[in-house]
Amino acid sequence: MDSHPAPGRPDDGLSLRERKKRQTRQRISDVATPLFAARGFDKVTVAEVAEAAGVSTMTVFNHFARKEDLYLDRIPEALALFSRAVRERRPGETAAAPVRRLFLELADAGHPLGGLGDTFPAFWRVILDSPALRARVREAVEELEDALAQAVAETTGARPGDPVPRLTAALTVTAYRTVVATTMARLLAGERAADAAPGHRTLIGTTFDALEAALRALDGPVLGPGTP
Predict the structure, then answer these.
(1) Which of 80, 96, 107, 115 has the lowest CB atom count within 10 Å?
(2) What is the DSSP code (8-state) at residue 54?
(3) Low-confidence residues of the chain: pLDDT under 50
């Protein structure tokens, strides 16, 4: 995926070595993405990506656990951004409020995780054409639910086995996915991002309003830290 930075991305404080590792990882992904887009994900080998990036195959796997993550390289960033938003939410807030704010911020910035951009349909067509990538997306959804459930549990003091953090996370991720999928269908049909933007923002608002109401109706701890 492209190297569009996330709003508030925590780059400060990284050592020179960590910065170089991040740059190498990004370079490999930037080389891999157009190869996959041009020829199809399943027809490009990791060795070909390594050669095009000027690194060894071992170096590729040092940065990416599997081939699918070369294309879906935003998964770690999504886990970090959304779980941090939930952990740092304001007292009295459910998980919906900070995720809504982050979602809008990402969309306004044209970030890939914001679900709104003219280059996104081409990116998603590669995923739709590859069973391996579609399976990895499903795994990523589970990983995001796990991360958010843990963040909710940690910040509310939920007891082990309490289903509320898991349900909160599942509903929150479903709301996010619903908006992204709805807008992506419009973009895949040929609509421009600028034309879809007002509806995208409105859908975020209505979807997360409903989510907020659902979360507040749950029995159990759902509100942010410091809530009486």
Answers:
(1) 80
(2) T
(3) 10, 228
- For the record, the structure tokens of 218 come out as 């749950």
pTM score: 0.87
Quote the tokens at residue 75: 């998964």
Residue 76, amino acid: P
Angle, alpha carbons 30-31-32 (nearest 5°): 95
Can you spell out the DSSP letters for 148-204? HHHHHHHHHTPPTT-SHHHHHHHHHHHHHHHHHHHHHHHHHTT--HHHHHHHHHHHH
Give the list of residues 6+ apart from residue 40 with CB closer than 8 angstroms, or none. 126, 129, 130
pLDDT in tens, 11-61: 556 788 888 888 999 999 999 999 999 999 999 999 999 999 999 999 999
